[in-house]
Amino acid sequence: MMKDEDLVNLIYSLRDEKTEGEYYEFKKSYLESEKFGRSISALSNSAALCDQKYGYIIFGIDDTTHEIIGTHFDSASEKAKGNMDLVPWLEKGLIPKINIVYKDLFIDNKRLFVVIIDAAKERPTRFYGNGYIRIKSYNQPLAEYGNKEKELWKKLTLTPFEEDTALQNCSSDEVLSYIDYPAFFTLLNLPLPETKDGILKRLVMERVITPNGVTYNILNIGALLFGRDLKTISSVSRKTVRIILYERDDWIDAKKEVSFDSGYAISFEKIIAWIDDQLPASEFIGDSKRKEIKIYPKVAIREFVANALIHQDFWIRGAGPMIEIFQSRMEISNPGIPLIKIDRFIDHTPVSRNEKIASLMRRMNFCEERGSGVDRAISKIEEFQLPAPEFSADDDFTRIILYANLKNMGTRDRIRACYQHCCLCWVRKEYMTNTTLRERLGISKGNYSVASRIIRDTLNENLIKIQDPEGEGRGPKRKYLPYWG
Predict the structure, then answer these.
(1) Burial of 320 by CB count in 10 Å (0-12 exposed, 13-18 middle, 19+ buried)?
(2) Cα–Cα nearest to 363, from 221, 230, 212, 152
(3) Domain match, 55 and 118 both
(4) Which of 276, 374, 470, 474 fits a 20 to 30 Å CA distance from 311?
(5) Which of 200, 235, 270 is the last residue of a domain?
(6) What would the DSSP string read from start to end of 387-430?
(7) pTM value?
(8) Count of H helices and E strands in the chain?
(9) Structural domain of residue 265, as residue ranges?
(10) Do residues 415 and 288 both lie within one domain?
């Protein structure tokens, strides 16, 4: 940690700047606890982006004039939520743990209180599940700035997790014992070479392994996708896919649990088939033939499970993808916060923190190349007349919930369905109307006022907007588009 003299000189130089910078913040005095935590996350991440060792919050300086005014603020005497002491509450919410120094400093006989924050290391600093970044002099959610997050990851890890080494100095026979190479060639629709040397050369070409003198290193991407048994490889042993089947709609009684220990590419179809086998079905009669229809569309399950595997944050230790099947819902979760806002999952250019895994999974047709998979999944959910899926990002996890019963929808569920339906209409180069929403939610023609109320509630949430406020279309004929359209 720098000496007091160096810290004073730094503060003088920061005051000379016209505006606050991306790795420091001036405050007159009190800072509300939630904002304090967000500032720590933002300054830690921005310091890493700016190649600084530390970020700073400096109390006792006017953030407009940069005049030294002094402060009585002291974090040791402040309280946070639940009357908890501020400092333990702040540090409890920071993932990963970083070093923070709280320091009194006197300049011109005026007391300053300086918070010195370590720059992010290994992965972005998050506060109670959410990461932040400084944009000019404001703290903004990191998830809303995908390019910034990608740049930050590059700064923090010279080698992405997927390209890092899982096993070192493996002989050729050891490589072929760890990697299910027949599945690799089958899934990528490649001819299986006749010689061991030909197999290894192709694995090197696809960056599943890398040569290391006379031996080989198996990379994490190879282990994750094509490993015969992930539990035998420490770097990915906790990334196996777990599925839990519950008796009811709570977590009390688990009826069955299964873990898929082989690589994601090898086990993907088995995972989808196992889920499908557990789901209740109804009988449908069409074209004089009876067939079984599962409660959730398989297209949606495939897309959401693939997303959970591909977009997870592999640097979060001790956690992997999980699917939980309840009586009237299914939850699919993975470690990590998405790089885009959850309300932009529809019609957004695909962004992945694991681009090489995403590319290989697309080549094997496990997910959509064009980024249209979520659109297609939600469209199928509408076709099945199911409630809109719920997306959430909290506690360092992304979660998707599929619901089974349209009749039990509350106000929030209807707003979510209205917004997603409006997004799909936009994707199809159409507009949502009262009529299209009634068809989506199974509302009878005579109850158009019910659909109007749902549209009004969604407008009030600023999720949709009127296509032409001054146009001729009024009432049931009025057209709507998503807020970002």
Answers:
(1) buried
(2) 221
(3) yes
(4) 276
(5) 235
(6) PPPEEEEETTEEEEEEE--GGG--HHHHHHHHHHHHHHHHHTT-
(7) 0.72
(8) 15, 21
(9) 241-407
(10) no
Total domains, the chain: 4
Where among 156, 177, 206 does a domain terminate?
A: 156
Amino acid at 449: S
